[in-house]
Structures are given as C-alpha cells and as structure tokens.
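lol ok so funny story. i was supposed to be doing the assay writeup but got distracted and ended up predicting the structure for this chain instead. priorities right. anyway since i did it might as well share w the group, maybe its usefull for someone
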Amino acid sequence: MKLVRTTSDHPDFKKLVALFDEYLIDIDGEERDFFAFHNNKFLAHALVCYENDEPVGCGGFKEFDATTAEIKRMFVHPDHRKKGIANLILSEIEAWAKENGYTQFILETSPKLENAIALYKKTGYVIIPNFGQYIGVENSICMKKEG
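and the output, tada:
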C-alpha cells in the first residue's frame, strides 16, 4: 500500500469520490443534495491510497476550528474492503492533522454505514450530538476523538 498526500483536485481522489457519491445515492435518499453540497468542497488535505498503483481508497480533513480537524470523504472501493485500508487511511489523516496542530477530530457519517461506524468506534471515536450543518439531520451520526 502507498499513501499519497495531495488535495481534492487530484484526479485519483476525484475518481474515488465520484464512486463514493454514486454509492451514497441510495443511502442519502432525499437528503442527497444537502450532503453533496457540504461534502463536495475543496480539501487542501486529501489522501489517496494505492494498491499496486491502483487508487483504492481516499479521505481527507479540513479545519473545523483552531484545535479540531473534520475528517471528510473517507471511502474504500468495495472491491478492496476488509484489508485494513480504511484504518490505514484514517491513521494517516489523523497523523497529518496532528502535524498541522490539531488535537481532536470530528466527523459525520450515515447511520446506514455500519462498517464505518464500527471502524470509528474501534479507533477511539465516540458518538456526539450533531454539530454544525448536521444539527437536526436524522440521517447523520457525528463522532469525535481526542487526539
């Protein structure tokens, strides 16, 4: 596995995010446009994971506040799941965010993404009240981890 730090303008990041957005169509349902609006923003800190030079996963982070990084766009191609790729990506994103001075991490995910929630819990995230634009959104679960 090879991890490449880049931005969300990277062609392989864009390719993976397009697959992720397709995957989310059924999951997000009528709220699809809401989530697309908040998720399809430029990320100065994006990561692409390669297996044998093939892009297989991605993620990134953005500043939420001076001490908190928000984890964004975590995705592993369905053909490459159950190999520890998501954990590898998440660990690298957290390390990169720490290098930039962040001491805690937050994220939002769908309650339907049970494997993602399990990964986040396994790596120290806890469910918190929804934050920001996710307040009052029933199809959202927000989580936090102290760095």
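The mean pLDDT is 92. The chain is about 35% helix and 35% strand.
back to the writeup now i swear
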